[in-house]
Amino acid sequence: MTTPFDRRHGRPTDGEEHDWQETSRRNARSVQTTVGWIFWDPGAVARYEARGLPGPLGYIASRGAPLAPAGAEALTAAFGSISSAGIALTFDLLKGDAAAFRDFWQARDEAVDEGLRRYAPGIVDPLVEMGPALWSAVDRLPRLGRVLFGATVSMPRPPNPLLSGWHAVNAIREWRGDTHWALLAAAGLTSSEASIVHNAWLGYEDDWLSRSRGQTETEIDEGWDSLARKGFAAERRVLPNALRLRQQLEDATDELAVLPWQLLGRGFSVRFAERLEPACELLLARVDKTAGPNYQPASRVRERYRSPEESEGR
Length: 314
Hints:
The chain is mostly helical. It has helices at residues 4-9, 20-36, 42-50, 55-64, 72-79, 84-93, 98-119, 124-140, 147-153, 161-186, 191-202, 208-212, 217-229, 240-256, 259-264, 266-290, 308-311; strands at 233-234, 237-238. The chain has a two-stranded antiparallel sheet with strand order 1-2. α2 crosses α14. It is globular and about 55 Å long.
């Protein structure tokens, strides 16, 4: 399926009949899972604690290392919904030392290499074999407006073939993430608003997602108040128009994020799905064990949101 966007920008379509948006949606789950399981893994947390930071702040330091020289405000802007207070505290504890941030980056690499081989050994060969092609696509992705992605790909690529493949997947994840946050910003949503609406779209208990990302009660209250002023919430309940918007933003992300897969080609994209999904099921089970079933929602299959009118067939 070729969209007007494809034709305008000359994307390789690799066949008129292929549903690239569905490929984007499907492979986004494996991309998220291949990377995201490490956020709560005890192997990573132990390494962060040995370096003086608790797990959540170690996550900020390790993921944020490429952008650390730009400072806490830049990282807050790039991370989107992660606690600005947590990011500021991380910079304070590490004294803004970029080398200290890179040490946490290296610690995460150690935990990734160890954890993948132990908990999902079936992912090792695919990442090693597919890594060079993944990097070839990453190198052709546009940088414009994607700051965290741009900073991430500027980091040295590890000689370890497994880690190299993992980092290529991580780069694709950050590219999609930057794209998604650009869409949310264009829709006029703030960090706290976005978390509240996303939480409702997922069907989670009240304010769970906001709190899991370290947002304060004041920030959450402000988010509810501003959503109400915009007509997206009433009496601390997200309204259907906000949920429709959230689904539209997800669909737009899937559409814009087809580019890595089109660059890789249909055959490669299908093999990526088929070879990584079984191992990613093991990694997602690892998330359930180390964090809980609400975490890493982007890895989980879910039905598209349908408004009450759509559900009733009107």
